[in-house]
Amino acid sequence: MTKPECSKKEPTREKTKTKTDSPEKDSKLTNPATAKDLFSVFAPEESDNDEVDIEKRDDKKDENYEPACKKSKDNNSKRYIPKYKKEWENKPELKSWLSESIHGNTYFYCKFCKKDYRCGISDIHKHMSSKKHMLRATVPAFEAQKFKFRGLLCPVFTPFVNTRRVTPDINLEAIPKYARFLNACEVKGILVNDIIGEGMSLTIRERINVTDAWTDVCEKHNLFLMVQIGGAPLKDVIELAKHANTRDVGAVVILPDLYNKPQNHLDLIKYIKLIADFTKNVPILYHHHPKFTHVEVDITSFLLDIIGEVDSFVGVIYTTNDIQQSTAAMAVNRDKFTVFMGTDEAVLGAAASGFSCIMGVSLNFLPKLVQSIRESVTQGDIKGAQKSQNLLNRAIDVIGEQGDYIAAFKAATDVITGTCGNTTREPLQTLWEGTIKKMQGKLRELGVM
């Protein structure tokens, strides 16, 4: 049988195709190596004259391109192509944007430009000085300045009408009194509709109503408002994101999808990116609470890979007792990211480790005690800080023994401050009066009432 004419006409071209590594083929790897592989919008754009665009080069079949150490046709000598070195990422001028490419060690990836380029340290420095890169490199620095909050963040409870109904109505009239109490105690940050606020037990309309009510009182008392919009179907999360954007809240906080959980930090980046398209310029934080969400991701890798991908992303609320991991996350990029320590038992450790932002449920009922821990650390009074932390821990233990975590702390807040009521929604169990009185007695013995 006669061979097809195309084989006769272009034997050299076919041979070249089989020998040349195809980045296009590599990009179809089952397990993506970097965050950019998750999004089709990361397709390279037109590059500068000093930059090599992988996809553009493939289309033109550049005959001058040769893989590393490929033999020249004219002689048997090997042509050296510079290879990527991981150690380059530690250079101060490169650390924030340089990353290895999934297309092999003859390329590097720019997180700001979201593109791959031909490798070599001289190529990297040439790209860094290009106008296009410098223009994009200013975006993270600009966005980093948008989140100004520093201090104590209180995740507030959602007040319900005092009833034994399965789904009690929200008592929006209690919110102004709640806000006045926190403002008087010098708590300047408010987080609504989070785990403590039973956000996942509220309808979308109820979450919007709660946000509206808190927005009004926070403007009046000059409180910084953050709204948790996650933990719901994506369509509902997008609706909440749009609403938060219209109310000009200080920031939005995102919990992961609680059913279709992200399998790794790249999945989480993709999820946050979808939501960021609707929050516009509102700063975004991720609430890392593995005990509640059962989502375990490497937060350090997450923060490193999200740089340049979601410009409005500004930080993490770290609700674990692991000071070492949270401190490592805080060190990733202090100019870009804010890391909250979100565990009451770790207030002393967080303050001593340099955390400028702390979130704790105990700010609802013992705000002065939490503040005294921070102040003692600032003044160098470690013994005083330890004494206050021990008292706080004993109070938390007493409260936690009484029933469901949220129901118990909500009841404690009500008996100490009288601000939010003690009613919760099913399936959470509202504490019975006898249990509440027992808790009151133990708290009086500790001297916190």
UniProtKB/TrEMBL annotation:
Q: Which Gene3D superfamilies match?
A: Aldolase class I (3.20.20.70)
Q: What is its EC number?
A: 4.1.3.3
Judged by the first EC level, this protein's enzyme class is lyase
Please provide, in alphabetical order, the Gene Ontology terms of the cellular component aspect for this entry. Answer: cytoplasm
Principal place where this protein is found?
A: cytoplasm
**Alphabetical list of CDD domains matching this protein:** DHDPS-like
- Please note every region of biased composition (Basic and acidic residues): 1-28, 54-76
UniProt pathway annotation:
Amino-sugar metabolism; N-acetylneuraminate degradation
Which parts of the sequence are annotated with region: Disordered? Answer: 1-76
Q: Which reaction does it catalyse?
A: aceneuramate = aldehydo-N-acetyl-D-mannosamine + pyruvate
- The organism's superkingdom is given as Eukaryota
Q: Which InterPro entries match?
A: Aldolase_TIM (IPR013785), DapA-like (IPR002220)
- State the Gene Ontology terms under molecular function: N-acetylneuraminate lyase activity
Q: Where in the cell is it found?
A: Cytoplasm
UniProtKB keywords: Carbohydrate metabolism, Cytoplasm, Lyase, Schiff base
The similarity annotation says: Belongs to the DapA family. NanA subfamily.
Could you describe the subunit structure of this protein?
Homotetramer.
Protein name from the UniProt record: N-acetylneuraminate lyase
Please tell me the species this chain comes from: Tenebrio molitor (Yellow mealworm beetle)
